[in-house]
């Protein structure tokens, strides 16, 4: 067995792989996050090849949407979880089965005997869920968003898949000087010493943007497609309702859900959330930038 240590948003995690599997081949997006630092582990993921049959004694919770695929979720009698992770698409094969203890500090990923792309999807999703749920009590949010950096601050844009968040960050990149993309699908938000910080992560959807970087959060914006470009600041209640569905969570798990709700509430005390109705054009980027950049500058 070979052990690999990674530091993701200042949380340390360990992955133990069979000697037949090379980390940079099966989870290449983790390479920028490799670390030799010592310290407390958020979780350990032990990996092996070969999937065991799900026990009939497990309690089925339902389906969990993650990584563009629906995964089966089961509860164990000890309070832990079992996840069946399938490739995207109806009738797609099983990629991985993950077992976790109640706080996700100790996990096991059993990979299906298949092609590398299948095992990569399974392990990558197992690690993403383990991270989100193990970190839920640590003022840490794995959020479905695209984030652009400008003037030293990170600006997050959330929206349901396929409704324009990546398009909007690209419009900033092209039309607003001094921008760079931090992550295009799953950045990590942490509150450290009462400061809201956004981090790049090993998970970035269809855009290969795996950057081990961070920035203080300037603002968060919820995007909706509209015939005219307009922006306004959301109320706290509106902002909470907008952010909660964008964060990886498990409503049926009190520890995880309580941690997520507490972290969102803390975040909203520190940084503004805006609503942007927009077209996919350059004007939308300028309208948004002018509104939220001015607010950020004034707030700071």
3D architecture notes:
With 300 residues, the protein is α+β, with helices and mostly antiparallel strands. The protein folds into two domains: 2-134, no CATH class; 140-299, Phosphoenolpyruvate Carboxykinase, domain 3 (Alpha-Beta Complex), CATH 3.90.228. The protein is built from six helices and 17 strands. The strands form two sheets. Strands 9, 10, 11, 12, 13, 14, 15, 16 and 17 form a nine-stranded mixed β-sheet that branches. An eight-stranded mixed β-sheet has the order 1-2-3-8-7-6-5-4, covered by helices on one side.
List keywords for this structure.
alpha+beta, Phosphoenolpyruvate Carboxykinase, domain 3, 8-stranded mixed β-sheet, globular
């Amino acid at each position: 067995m070979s052990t690999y240590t990674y530091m993701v948003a200042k949380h340390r995690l360990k992955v133990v792989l069979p000697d037949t599997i090379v980390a940079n081949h099966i989870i290449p997006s983790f390479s920028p996050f490799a670390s030799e630092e010592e310290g407390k582990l958020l979780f350990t993921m032990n990996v092996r090849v070969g999937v065991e049959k799900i026990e009939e004694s497990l309690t089925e919770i339902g389906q969990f949407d993650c990584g563009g695929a629906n995964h089966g979720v089961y509860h164990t009698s000890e309070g832990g979880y079992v996840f069946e992770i399938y490739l995207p698409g109806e009738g797609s094969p099983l990629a991985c089965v993950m077992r976790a203890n109640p706080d996700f500090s100790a996990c096991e990923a059993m990979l299906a005997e298949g092609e590398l792309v299948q095992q990569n999807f399974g392990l990558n999703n197992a690690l993403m869920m383990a991270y989100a749920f193990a970190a839920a009590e640590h003022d840490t949010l794995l959020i479905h968003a695209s984030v652009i950096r400008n003037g030293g601050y990170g600006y997050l844009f959330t929206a349901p898949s396929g409704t324009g968040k990546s398009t909007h960050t690209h419009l900033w990149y092209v039309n607003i000087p001094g921008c760079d993309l931090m992550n295009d699908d799953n950045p990590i938000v942490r509150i450290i010493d009462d400061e809201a910080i956004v981090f790049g992560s090993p998970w970035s959807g269809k855009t290969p943007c795996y950057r081990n970087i961070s920035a203080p959060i300037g603002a968060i914006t919820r995007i909706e497609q509209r015939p005219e470009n307009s922006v306004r600041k959301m109320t706290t209640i509106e902002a909470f309702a907008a952010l909660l569905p964008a964060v990886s969570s498990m409503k049926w798990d009190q520890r995880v859900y309580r941690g997520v709700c507490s972290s969102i509430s803390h975040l909203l005390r520190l940084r503004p959330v805006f609503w942007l109705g927009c077209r996919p054009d350059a004007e939308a980027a300028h309208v948004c930038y002018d509104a939220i950049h001015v607010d950020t500058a004034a707030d700071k």
